Every structure is written in C-alpha cells, then in structure tokens.
Amino acid sequence: MTTAPTASRARSIAWIGLMIVGLFFLFAPISDLIGTHAHGLPGDHDGTFRKLAGTPFTDIKSAAPGTAHYISTLEYGYALHELTFGLLFLAVVIFAFRRGQRWAWFASWAPLIAAVGYTATFGAHDSTLLVRSLIADIALPVLLVISAPAFFRRGKAA
Predict the structure, then answer these.
(1) What is the pTM assigned to this prediction?
(2) Where are the domains of the chain?
(3) Which of these, 82, 95, 122, 149, has the minimum number of CB atoms within 10 Å of its CB?
(4) Mean pLDDT value across residues 78-91
C-alpha cells in the first residue's frame, strides 16, 4: 500500500513541473525571435496572421513593407517581453519557490495571465497554437495547487 506524497514531496514534484513550464516560457520567445529575424513573423504566428488579416504575411511584406516592418517590430517586442517574464518566472521558481517561500507560490500565478492571454489572442485563431497554449494554461495551476499544502501548512511562517 502506497501512502500519499508528503507536502514537501508534492512541492518537489511541482517544482520540477514548474521548471519544465519555465523552460517552455524561454524556448517559445527564443523561437519567436529566430522566426521573426528570419521571416519577419514567427512561423507559429502565421496561421493566426492569415486568419485575422485575410492574407499571408508574405503578401503584406510585398504590398506594404512599412506595415510588415511594424508588425515585425511588434513581434520582436512581444518576444522580448515574453523572454523577460520567462526569466523572472524561472528565477522565482529556482530560488524562492524551491526554498518554500510563500510569496513565491503567489508570484508563480502571475504568468497565468500571459498564458491565458496568449491562448485568447493567438490560440483562439489557430488550432495548433491552441493545443500548445493549453499546456501551460492547465499545467501551471495544477502544479501550484499540488504544491499548496507545502506552502500553507498550519504553523508555516509567512
């Protein structure tokens, strides 16, 4: 007969999962920066662009190069913001969350805003992106709920 994992074991399992999510939060914007540099638009954003603009990005690059340049600039900025928050998330998880600091548990919910926002803005228009984005949307709260007992045991200091 197996026993339920202890709170600290659950926190360790959640920590590993959050590290994986955090690495995804780094991989995605780096991939977007590479795609934007090579093509003006990340490859995984092309379906959403095509659906919303009614034309492929390559057509916009030919017909309206100034508009295409503006879109590429926005993509760079967006990816750099994502990368920044991914690095901050990993720093919180690697150091404070791992040490069991309660504030880190609360702070680890913040990326859910960006993750759900990405699902609503990009994933809603592209089924492949929808599936990918739901991974973080689901994994982040599940992992944080699993770890909650370790952060909120009776007598645990704030």
Answers:
(1) 0.89
(2) 7-148
(3) 95
(4) 97
